[in-house]
Each structure stands twice: as structure tokens, then as C-alpha cells.
Amino acid sequence: MKTSAKIKITNLHKSFGKKTVLNGLHLEIQKGESLVIIGGSGTGKSVLIKCIQGILTPDEGSVLIDGQEVVGTNAKEQEKLHAKMGMLFQGSALFDSMKVWENVAFSLMENHKVPREEAKEKAVQILRQVGLGAWVADLEPAELSGGMKKRVSLARAIATTPEIIFFDEPTTGLDPIMSDVINELIVQSVKGLGATALTITHDMASARKIADKIAMLYKGKIIWHGTVAELDQTDNEYVRQFVQGSSKGPIKVEV
Question: Please, what is the Cα angle at 202 between 197 and 204, to 5 degrees?
């Protein structure tokens, strides 16, 4: 039976020494869907993204993108897969030695061989899409506020019109108002591109705004998956504890 899943993960396992991070994880993300994965620190959210991207090789299991296996692909095939992807990194991860427009246009110039002048024009256009004026293009990253850095990082993530965008803790370090601005820009950007989005976050306000679906990762498995409305009605005690931010419940903090 043909599936509309953009990303399909089956029985994914990943350990580092004796530490099991992913333990038979199953997950599907449909084309054009925005999925947010929640879960505590150290539960494997970032490891999962790296396995999907082909940066890490799982010990066992399958990752399909558009029906194509990611696990075990050669460098040339990985390059094709990466061309479909954009990423907003936690902490923005801008190149300090480059101007803002060069950061935004980095993949356009390096991977798509767009000439510098044309790449700068494109970068300025994309900066406007995320609410930044053309004057920002020639600034250094060190001259930007935290919110501006997030916007530039978002601009870089969407510059190549990717089919899949990953967001790693997109509102970390921002105040509630700026967080909401960034969340709104993410929603607009993803919908505008018709992209499939995977976000990992601790911020439930962000999760609720960005998500079509939410999944919770715990002890290496997806233990719950549903809509935001279903999240508020669930009787899953692990999910309820996490959403409420309570120290009391089945999730025990390891110290």
C-alpha cells in the first residue's frame, strides 16, 4: 500500500557504548506535516534528527525519505538527500566570520553554485520574508540581537526552498514575545514552502503553535503521538507530567 509519509522510521536503534538512546523507535511524518517531538533532556531527540539526516548511522532499523532508504547510502546519495533539507540549529550557529547575507546564502553558493551577486539579492529577499530589512545583510552576526540571529538562522534554513526543515529548540534563549514571533515566522515559512517540518523542543507554547502533530519520546521510543487537541485530553501519565512540568509522576529525573 502506498503511503504519503515523507519520512518513515521503523525499528530504529542507536546506542553509544552501554547507553541506549533509541530503542526500537517507530514514527511516520506525512508530506507537508509539521511534527513536534517533545521529551526531556538526553532522551535522544537530537540523535533521532541526526539519524534521519544520515549524519549518524543507527545500529538497526530503517529511515525512508520519499521511500528511499537513508541508512547505508553512499556519499553521493546522501548529498542528494541533504539538498532536500534545511536546518535551524539550537543557538542559531551562524558563521562569525561571514556577513549576515553570506550566512543566509551559504548553501546557495556552496552547494547550488549561485553567483555571489545573485546569491546576495536572494539573501536580502529572504531576510525580508523573516522581517529583517536589507540593511541587516551587511552586518556581522556579533552585531545581532538574539531574536535577529534566530531570524537569520531561519532565513538560512529556508534559502534553498527545502522539502524538509528541521528545527532544533528554535526558541531557546528568547523571551516569550520574541519566541511567539519566531514561532509565527516558522509556521508561515513552512506553510509557504509546503515543507515537511520536524521540530524538537521543550517549549510547550512553541510546540502548540508550530505543530500539526506532537510526539513524545521517552526511553528511546515514541510513547504518544497525536494532535494538539488530543494532547490536552490524553490520559497518558507520562505526557501529562511533561506537559504540566511536574516533578511528581512516572518520569524520574536522573541525578
Answer: 80
For the chain, the structural domain boundaries read: 1-73+197-255
At which residue does the C-alpha cell 540523535 appear?
47
- The cell for 124 is 536580502
The CATH number of domain 1-73+197-255, selected from 3.30.1330.200, 1.20.200.10, 3.40.50.300, 1.10.8.80? 3.40.50.300
Tell me the DSSP string of 73-97: --HHHHHHHHTTEEEE-TT----TT
pTM: 0.91
Burial of 173 (0-12, 13-18, 19+ CB in 10 A): middle
Structural contact between residues 209 and 180, judged by C-beta atoms closer than 8 angstroms: yes
- Each residue's pLDDT expressed in tens, for the chain with a length of 255 residues: 456 799 999 999 999 999 999 999 999 999 999 999 998 877 889 999 999 998 899 999 999 999 989 998 888 888 888 888 999 888 778 889 999 999 999 988 887 888 999 999 999 999 999 999 999 999 999 999 888 999 999 999 999 999 999 999 888 888 899 889 999 999 999 999 999 999 999 889 899 999 999 999 999 999 999 999 999 899 999 999 999 888 888 888 765
Q: Which residues pair with 25 in a beta bridge?
A: 12
10 Å CB burial of residue 117 (0-12, 13-18, 19+) is exposed
In 10 A of CB 166, how many CB atoms?
22
What residues contact 251, with CB distance under 8 A and at least 6 apart?
A: 40, 218, 238, 241, 242
CA distances from 219 to 16, 25, 69, 181, 209 (A): 14, 10, 25, 32, 26
